[in-house]
Amino acid sequence: MSAVATTRERATAYDRVLTALPLASIYVWLSIVYCVEAWKRATPWLFTDELELTQLSRSIAATGHAARRGEPHSFRSLYVVLTSPIWLIHDVSVAFATLKYVDTLVMTSVLFPTYFLARIVVGRTPALFAATGAAVIPSLAYSSWIVEETFAYPYAAFCFFMIAKALVVRSRGWIVGAIVASLVAPVVRGELMVIPIAFLLAVLFVWWSNEPMRTRRTTWSASDWLGAFALAAGAIILLGGFASHHSTEWLMNTAYNWTKKRIFTFGDWAAGSLAIGLGVLPFVVGLAALVPVRRERRSRELQAFRSTATAGIIGIGLYASMKAAYLSQIFASRVEERNLIYIAPLLFVGTALVLERRRINVWALAAAAAYTLYILLGTPLFIGGGLYSDALGLAIFQQANRYFLLGAPEARTILVIALAIAVLGVLAITRLRPAAATLIAVGIAVLTLAWNVTGEVAAAAGDVTVSRDFVPTLARPFTWVDDATHLKPTLYLAQGVADQDPEWLLEFWNRSITTVSSLDGTVGGPGPAGAPNITARGQLYWTPDPSQPGKVFDYAVEDWPCIDFAGTLAARHFYRGGATALRQWRLLQLTKPNRLRAICVGIYADGWSGPNDSTYFRFIGKRRGWLRIALTRQGFPGSPVDIQLGTIGTKHHEPVLDRVLRDRSIRLAQGTSRVVWIPTPASAFAVRTVVRNKFVPGKGDVRTVGAQISYRWSLTKGK
Q: Domains plus CATH for the chain?
């Protein structure tokens, strides 16, 4: 090899390093910032998403199969498979920290596919702007959460790059690569099932917009256009029918709720939140960039990008709208920006295209600006609340309200001004001389990135605040159950739970808890949470036959005092249930078969008895004793109270008061408290307390209640 050739190769390699250095540098610095944010995040709090994904990952790591609370479940996404090896780390704190940093590094990698997508149509500097923008949107605060977006967001950008590149190069390798990437997308996250559809749409758009097809359309008659319209409408109807047959969400939204405009309303909310988070300009300009400019040279690269971006925005936008509309019917009306963030790289590349070429379709800009104004004025901002987990684009104004008392009217004024500046700035760069236009374009780019960085920091700060607020709920040490059980199977059993956050936190931080349940159905998922069957002697069983109990546990966490297991006390832990109430968990090493000493049912978490009154069951009664019943209705009218003591029977595999042995009536006067002592036999017994005059407290409390009541059994009276 000649010296000249060697020198050229070295120069080429050197140029490649210099070219890659800015992009790599941005990735490193952003990763450092996001890792610091991840380090500050004390605990997961987005339940049930983070807990469900954790359960699936842990199950795969332990058994090779996906499960929730021991029950088989689908893998849900590739995310749980790829993160499962992390849960082989014994220490939960270390595993959680490792997972946060891995998620952060992966989500930040959206830089690379966005850069390569942008390089199809723009130069290096505008491509760096687009890549950086996609990597600093407020939703990058998800990077330290245990959510599928951390992998799905960069993968969606990768798919868009592969599709656009395949449409440009049109070689077998790129086409196969784009097909494979698109087919894998739904496995990465279910929402990305729209990627293969977007691929097909992009191919259709390229075919429709190519030169031969444009030439042919100039010869079409009115009947030809009518036939094309009929074919398109028929295809849409056919696809809609197919989707309705295979998707409950699609059926509910299109067949039953179309006239309610749910799809449009909630789709606009998601788009509005995204526009706010992006700083308005990338949303307006990115949409307008999809429309060709008069007399521009329509290169294959430009055609491929516009076709891919248009298809991606249609697919992702439709999914986000349908998902939000469906949730509004079965759960709550939410701003689901979270499902729309995947179009952000496309919008930033479109913005970079306009800033570099300084040309834009004015009519498209006007239409995009009008739509953006409409959604900015109509999207709920939720300024007075905390971090809105499904719409991090709103975080910038939520934090502004927190620190500067900025209200919704002021926020909307700022957004309208930002929209006006965006439109005027883009029009300016298309008409001014090159030097002035370049200066304005650089200013627009810098301000846009600054807005996004501010929004991301605001969202991350809100996340850190929420996570640290959750720390007193569980209280340290978080892993107190695992520390005592050494990962032996542990049951969690509660009654009258008003706030499940403490249980979710306990379940995340303690892998030994394999089954979660409550006596009254107040503890739910993710995963099965059915109540156990209980015999008249207090034995727990999970099958129809108590002689074959099914599950047998070594330990149990009982929500004291209404749950009292037979066994040896291993540990106590205090936590905060509800707002500030200090409550106690007790960890017991259980007898086998697992049995209960006592339970009380029919009592809300704040101590009020409910519409069906309350009952205390004591299954172990070898010695006589006393049951202390404390009653109060302070602030409310008095009531007669009947107290019945009797034997324990079973009905529907649950204990009930069977034969009444003694009955006592008392009067609970208004504004007073009363303590009643009931002598108990040396055998199992049940005591039912019936408050006759029940009432609804009012002032937002619509429950039917009797009295605030508590039970405590002891061997001697007065203790």
A: 17-469 (no CATH), 474-596 (no CATH), 602-714 (2.60.120)
